[in-house]
Amino acid sequence: MAFVVTESCIACKYTDCVSVCPMECFFEGPNFMVINPDECIDCSICVGQCPVGAIVEASEIAPDQAHFVQLNRDLSHDPRWKRITQAKPPLPEHEVWAAAKNKLHLLKQQIET
Ligand code: SF4
Ligand code: SF4
User: Fold this and answer.
1) Residue 8 domain-assigned?
2) Ligand 1, atom 3: closest residue by C-alpha
3) Entry's NCBIfam families (predicted)?
4) Residue 91 domain-assigned?
5) Which residue is closest in CA terms to ligand 1's atom 2?
6) Which atom of ligand 1 is nearest to the CA of 94?
């Protein structure tokens, strides 16, 4: 079972998690991050790095977040999503969105042109 990025990350994307991952298995979209479950070695180092507690073990995920297991798998294999290994500044309105719930509709799968 791999670790999974859940809803709290949407529109925040602090990226603190990526710099500690020994497998470099985070992938970045416009306003969300995911973990490639085929590369994650379940070390859990990233969990404590996330300021909003967005990373959980797949087998312990809350029922209302269960769809993020498949979403992490799908988006980490989406060619539009790129591997990210270095932290960078969070999104401009991260403080507003950090505490917000029900953000799935805000998830952008590709950069708008
Ligand atoms: S640290 Fe948390 S909020 Fe930031 S990108 Fe990683 S999972 Fe998302
Ligand atoms: S659990 Fe370990 S290998 Fe998996 S994403 Fe987090 S830091 Fe990377």
Assistant:
1) yes
2) 9
3) FdxA_Protbact
4) no
5) 50
6) 3
Q: Is the CB of 31 under 6 A from ligand 1?
A: no
Say whether pLDDT at 112 is over 80: no
Q: Tell me, what's the pLDDT at 113? A: 56
- Classify strands 26-28 and 33-35 as parallel, antiparallel or unpaired: antiparallel
Instruction: Tell me, in angstroms, the distance from the centre of ligand 2 to residue 49's CA.
Output: 11
Number of H helices, E strands in the chain: 2, 5
B/e letters for 50-61, b = 16+ CB within 10 Å, e = fewer, are bebebbbebeeb
Considering the chain, what percentage of its residues have pLDDT values greater than 70? 97
Q: Which residue has the tokens 């959980």?
A: 56
Over residues 91-108, the mean pLDDT reads 86
CATH number at residue 75: 3.30.70.20
Please list every protein residue whose CB sits less than 6 Å from any atom of ligand 2.
Answer: 3, 20-21, 23, 25, 35, 40-46
